[in-house]
Amino acid sequence: MFSTIIASAQNSVNDTIVLTRVDAETIFLQSNLSLLAEKLNIDIAEAQVIQAKVWPNPTLSVSEVNLWSNSTSEELPVLWGNYGRNQEIGLSLEQLVYTAGKRKKLIAIEKVGAQMAAQYYKEILRSLKTEFRNNLTALQFNQQQKSVYEKQLLSVRKLINAYASQVKKGNISQAEYVRLKASELEFLNELNELNTEGNALQKEMKILMNLPAKSYIKLENEGFVPNLNPLDELNLADIINEAENNRPDLQFAKLAQQYSDNKYAYEKALRTPDITLQASYDRGGNIMNNFFGVGFAIDLPFFNRNQGNIKAAKYAIEKSILIKEQTFKSAQAEIVQAYGNFTNARQLYESIDTGYDKDLDMILESHLKNFSDRNISLLVYLDYVEAYIKNKEIILTSKKQLNERLEELRYASGQELN
C-alpha cells in the first residue's frame, strides 16, 4: 500500500511527492518508526505472560563421586563389567513448588501488564496522530499562504516591467516605481519567511512519515476544511460519558490500579514459603549400598514475612486510586475546553460568507485592471492589496483553527468524531 501511494504521487521531474491528507496519514501509520518500535513493547509484554506461566525447572545434582579408591574402600556390587566395585555416587532431584497461588497471581500481574502496554501504545498513537494531523494542517496553511503572496508578487513584477520604460520616458513618476519595488521586496520577504517555516514543517513531516530526506511533500488542498456535517449532533455530555471507554490514558489508569491490586495480592502470597520437594539416590554412602530417599525443604518465616513489600504494595494501591481520579478529572476538563474551543472556531468559520473568498479575488482583478488603465491611483491599489492579503489570511487562519480545534476535540474525547 505504501509503495503504491508513493509511486502514484512521485513527480518524475524531481523528488516532489503530491499527497492527499488521507494518503499522507496512511504512510504515517505504516512507516512511523516510533509507532513500530512502541508496538514491539506489546510483544515483549505478551512474552512476559508466557514466561510467567512456565514452571521452574527441576534441579539434578550429582555428588560424592570418587575418582579412585584406597585400602579402606569397601567392595560393592559392580555396575557393569568390572567397573564400580569401589565406586560411590549420589544423585538428587529437586523441584520447587510455588505455594499460596503465587504462579497464578504472577500470571495475573503480567496479563494486566500486557494490557497496559497495549493501552500505552494507543496513547502514543493518539498523541502522534494529533501531532501529525496538525502538521498536515500547518503545511497546507503554509502552502496556501505562499500561493497568495506568489500571486501578488507576479502581479507586482508585471507592473514593474511595464512601468520601467514609462519611468524613463517621464510618463510615470519615480516615486510610484520605487513604491512598486518596495512592495515587491515586502512580498519577497514574506515568502522567505514562509519558505523557512515550510522547511521546518517538511523536516517534521518526513521524520513522522519516514520519507527520504530529499523528498518534498506537496499536499493537495482537500481536507483543509474538515467535513462538519457528522459533527452537527455532537453532545458534550455524551462525549464525557464515553471518554472512559475511548481514551487510552483513562484505560491505562484503570489498569494501573488493577495492576497494583494484583501486585498486593502477590506480595501477600510471598509471605507463605515455597516448598522444594527432593528425591535422592546414594550408592555406597549410607546404611544401604543403594539408598533411595525423599525429603523437602522450606524456609522458616521467622524474620522475613515480606512485611515491607506488602506495605509498599498497599500504598501503591492508594497512589493508583488518586492518580486515576486525577486523570479522570483532567480528562473531563480537557473535553469541556476542547469542545468550547471547537464551537468558537466553527462559529468564526461559518460567519464568513461562502463566496467571500471568490469576491476578494474578483475585486482584486478589478483593481489591478483599473490601476493598469490609470483609473485609480497606486495608493488605492496597494491599499486594497494590503486589505486583500489580510482578509485572505483571516479566512485561511479560520480554516486552520477549525481543523486544529477539531483535532484537539478528537484527542480529548479519544474518538474520531466522523
UniProtKB/TrEMBL annotation:
Q: Which residues form the signal peptide?
A: none
- List the InterPro entries hit by this protein, alphabetically: MdtP/NodT-like (IPR010131), OMP_efflux (IPR003423)
Q: Coiled-coil segments, which residues? A: none
One MF annotation (Gene Ontology) recorded for this entry: efflux transmembrane transporter activity
Report the Pfam families cross-referenced here.
OEP
Which top-level group of life is the source organism from? Bacteria
Please give the family membership noted in the entry.
Belongs to the outer membrane factor (OMF) (TC 1.B.17) family.
UniProt name for this protein: Transporter
Native source organism of the sequence: Flavobacterium beibuense F44-8
